[in-house]
């Protein structure tokens, strides 16, 4: 069982509220989303593991059981070409849950006309594999979003 924690502080909104049909329809995988506070943030690792994919706007951490968790920092933020994002680790890095991976500013993302909502996706999982899913209410960075069994 893997506990997946929030990369940012904000308000849990659930995937259906993500303004992107691919995430909202859980086509990438099940999970939830967080509408982050509008201040400069460090996005945190959601699990202990290895960074297998790393872009300024998104990263994937795979845990020791081979479970990959995708964090997408905002919607359509790939179009910002890395502007406003600072990588704090390298691809292949071993990381601990709660470790800062990317520094960014959700307010700047919003000012650029993009949604700062952050999907947190259990890759290659089924919806029934996720328990204790948080889809509403305030969440703290490092707080539990779901348990993957």
From TrEMBL:
PTS EIIA type-1 domain span: 20-124
Any one annotated GO CC term: cytoplasm
InterPro entries to which the protein is assigned, alphabetical: Dup_hybrid_motif, PTS_EIIA_1_perm, PTS_EIIA_component
Pfam families (UniProt xref): PTS_EIIA_1 (PF00358)
A single GO BP: phosphoenolpyruvate-dependent sugar phosphotransferase system
NCBIfam families recorded: PTBA (TIGR00830)
Protein name in UniProt: PTS glucose transporter subunit IIA
Species annotation: Streptantibioticus silvisoli
């Amino acid at each position: 069982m893997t506990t997946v924690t929030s990369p940012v502080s904000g308000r849990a909104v659930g995937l259906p509220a993500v303004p992107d049909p691919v995430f909202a329809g859980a086509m990438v995988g099940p999970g939830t989303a967080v509408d982050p506070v509008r201040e400069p943030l460090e996005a945190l690792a959601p699990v202990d593991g290895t960074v297998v994919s790393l872009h300024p706007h998104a990263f994937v951490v795979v845990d020791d059981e081979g479970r990959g968790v995708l964090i997408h920092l905002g919607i359509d933020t790939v179009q910002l070409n890395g502007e406003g994002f600072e990588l704090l680790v390298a691809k292949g890095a071993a990381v601990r849950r709660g470790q800062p991976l990317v520094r960014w500013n959700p307010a700047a993302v919003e000012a650029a006309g993009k949604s700062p909502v952050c999907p947190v996706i259990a890759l290659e999982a089924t919806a029934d594999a996720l328990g204790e899913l948080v889809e509403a209410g305030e969440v703290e960075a490092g707080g539990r979003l779901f348990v993957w069994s």
